[in-house]
Write a structure and sequence with these properties.
The protein is mainly β. The chain is built from 2 helices and 18 strands. It is elongated and about 80 Å long.
Length: about 200
C-alpha cells in the first residue's frame, strides 16, 4: 500500500507519496492579510533603498518578504541524517532534505554589501542572498550553476549547497524582495516641524 505524508509549513500544504516522494498538490500560502484587507506589496528597488538612506533610516528595521515560493533540496545519500530545517524525504533509494519557503514569508536583513543583501527567514540566521546587479533595479535571488531549462540554481543554506527552484514561477531568479506599501508610505509621510532657535538657547 502506498503511504502519503502531509507537510504543512507556514500555511503551505505539501503532499508526498512514500515510494517516490512525488508531490501531488502544492498549495502555496495565501496572501498575507491584515484587518480583513489584502496587504499590498511593492518591490524593494535601488531607488527605494536610496530613499531610505536619504531619510537616515536604519535599513535593518525594514520588514522584507520574498514574493515567490522557494523550494530548496539537497541529497543526503543512502544514510539517514539529522536535518536542521525542512523535511527529510526518501526518494529513489536516497534521503532528500527539502526546505520550503512560502511566498510572502517575512525575513530580516542580516548584512549588506554594495547591492547585495543577505536575508534570513529563520531564527537560525540561515541567509539567502538577493542582489540588484548591473541595470537590474530589483533585488533578486542570487545563485550559481543556473539551469535555464527549469530555472534552478545552487545556493548555500545552513553552510551546505542546496538546489533551489521556484514553486510559483518559472525560475528561482524571478524571486525578489518586496516590502509592505503601507509601511513605505508611512516612511514618506514622516515629517517634523522645526521650532527654531532663540538667542537664549546658545
Amino acid at each position: 500500500m502506498r503511504k502519503y505524508f502531509l507537510l504543512i509549513l507556514s500555511g503551505a500544504a505539501v503532499f508526498f507519496t512514500a515510494g517516490c516522494a512525488k508531490k501531488i498538490v502544492v498549495a502555496s500560502a495565501p496572501p498575507v492579510v491584515a484587518t480583513s484587507k489584502e496587504v499590498l506589496y511593492v518591490p524593494f528597488t535601488k531607488e527605494l533603498r536610496q530613499r531610505i538612506e536619504n531619510n537616515n533610516l536604519d535599513i535593518k528595521k525594514i520588514q522584507f518578504f520574498v514574493d515567490q515560493q522557494l523550494i530548496m533540496r539537497r541529497t543526503l545519500g543512502t544514510e539517514k541524517a539529522d536535518v536542521k530545517s525542512g523535511e527529510l524525504l526518501f526518494e529513489k533509494g536516497q534521503y532528500i532534505n527539502e526546505v520550503v519557503i512560502p511566498a510572502f514569508t517575512p525575513g530580516v536583513l542580516e548584512s549588506i554589501n554594495g547591492d547585495r543583501m543577505k536575508i534570513s527567514f529563520e531564527v537560525q540566521n540561515n541567509e539567502i542572498e538577493f542582489a540588484a546587479l548591473g541595470d537590474n533595479t530589483f533585488f533578486r535571488l542570487v545563485g550559481s550553476n543556473w539551469n535555464n531549462a527549469n530555472g534552478s540554481a545552487d545556493i548555500v543554506y545552513e553552510n551546505k549547497v542546496y538546489r533551489v527552484v521556484c514553486g510559483s514561477c518559472s525560475s528561482a531568479g524571478d524571486a525578489k524582495l518586496v516590502v509592505i506599501k503601507k509601511e513605505i508610505d508611512k516612511m514618506d509621510n514622516k515629517k517634523r516641524i522645526v521650532q527654531g532657535r532663540k538667542i537664549a538657547d546658545n
